[in-house]
């Protein structure tokens, strides 16, 4: 990494394009020098729907930055948090019959697994590959057991993939702006590594749940390896929609009601207590019981936690009793007033309290992305970059050099 040379990062999320430029100092620390946040026009429902519009918007903002700092970018690191990704956990093995584990044994397994994924997922492109498990004679090994003796060795990898069409569109909107994509990083991966680093590597097995207004997701890290993620097309807005539907009141009235501290009470003094007229400045007054509002809120929060975590059959095979749970709630009103509600419903199944954390700041996420782009992650089988070397060549270089 060259000192003093501007480096471009672009995040694409559910709402925005975020353009960030940083420079590395003499200690290889990234300092943010420019940042632009703009609506993600040209994208709807997690897909590019207007490539021309997206290209023009990206070109306009990058040119504004280039003019301001008097520098022309040639490459970009992309962070994605909107396109649908998929993940596959797959294992390979080698019978050793008492011999040593050799580089060639692991090469054979990695080659076989990559080939299996390539053949079965022809419509998808690999973004990340992680070492999930190394097991020698039934014993889990933290590092690759090259040189150890045994009878049977198995190696599990986790592949994260994106649809070829999404990848094609991402490349198009940046290549047409004369930018080569250096690397594409999944935002969930970045945030997971931030949690691990912030906890000084003392917490490496956990679920991270992010609940936005209209979309949510869950990701799972196992011993610092990114193992799983899943997206859901709902968020905290269903609380507002349900109250509006049942009570026939406007959204601005609902905001006033949900901002009131009475909702945090475990039990009202009177179950038949009605909402006061002060909430209905720009709405027709309706005689609505406070308990009804509380019941609707709790029912929706319970439903959200059930679908994402507690009754999610897709994560049953990954479930770990010692896994911590970190929850990020985007809507500040819901975060401020209903933390206890989320904790309560999750704690009904787990015997520990989940951690509610604020959303990650843009600057800290970009710094983490820069580090991962340059150095990779300790559980990556190989950092996947947009280079001309074959994937298998990069895997071998990453592991053995």
Explained architecture:
The protein is an alpha+beta fold and 401 residues long. Helices cover 35% and strands 29% of the residues. It has eleven helices and 17 strands. The protein has helices at residues 51-69, 103-120, 164-175, 187-198, 237-247, 251-258, 290-310, 332-337, 339-347, 362-375, 391-400, and strands spanning 7-13, 16-24, 30-39, 43-44, 47-48, 75-81, 85-95, 124-136, 139-140, 152-163, 180-186, 206-211, 216-222, 225-232, 324-329, 355-357, 380-382. It has a five-stranded mixed beta sheet with strand order 3-2-1-6-11. Strands 7, 8, 9, 10 and 17 form a five-stranded antiparallel beta sheet that branches. β13 (216-222) and β14 form a beta hairpin. α2 (103-120) runs antiparallel to α11 (391-400) and α4 (187-198) crosses α10.
